[in-house]
Amino acid sequence: MKQLGFFRMIAASSLLAASTAIAQEGTQPRLPTVELTAGMYVIQAEVAQTHQQHSIGLMHRQSMGVNEGMLFVYQSPEIRCYWMRNTLIPLTIAFLDDDGTIVNLKDMEPHTERSNCSIKPVRYALEMNQGWFDQRGIKPGFRLRGIPPASGNGL
To answer: How far apart (Å, rounded) are the C-alpha atoms in residues 155 and 145?
Structure first.
């Protein structure tokens, strides 16, 4: 009897893993956007709020517009780490405080599983085309405007 329960648990775990893998196979449909400002620059950022949206992110996208990005919104501040498995375009990620201040920036290369992490707990992360922040002289300590509240139901 114990073996039957064990095999059911293994089958359920395999089904969950398979459904997660399937969810991560395709390109995520475009998500609702918010307009962020970085000084004189305007960013159209898709907002990823759910666990599934966070998991898929920008995977399998062929390109992204010059002033487009993806903003990841979480319910609570934590150390956040990202990798680039199944991501085709080079990105720079900005880890953001609750008020939109950039904590740190990391360049991320496509098709890698190398972790790129925030240096302290954050509630937000913004992915842009690689070099976007550097080309505009935007560095840690700079504050982005227009960050939505992390309520999970604001968009």
So the answer is: 16
User: Considering just the CA atoms, what is the radius of gyration of the chain in Å?
Assistant: 17
The closest of 101, 93, 33, 39 to 68, measured between CA atoms, is 33
**What 3-state class would DSSP assign to 3?**
helix
The two most distant CA atoms of the chain are separated, in Å, by 67
Please give the Cα distance from 139 to 71 (Å, whole number). Answer: 17
- Give per-residue pLDDT as tens, 78-131: 999 999 999 999 999 999 999 999 999 999 999 999 999 999 999 999 999 999
User: What homologous superfamily is domain 28-135 in, according to CATH?
Assistant: Protein of unknown function DUF192 (2.60.120.1140)
Name the pTM for this structure: 0.81
In whole angstroms, what is the distance from residue 154 CA to residue 150 CA? 8
pLDDT (0 to 100) of residue 151: 62
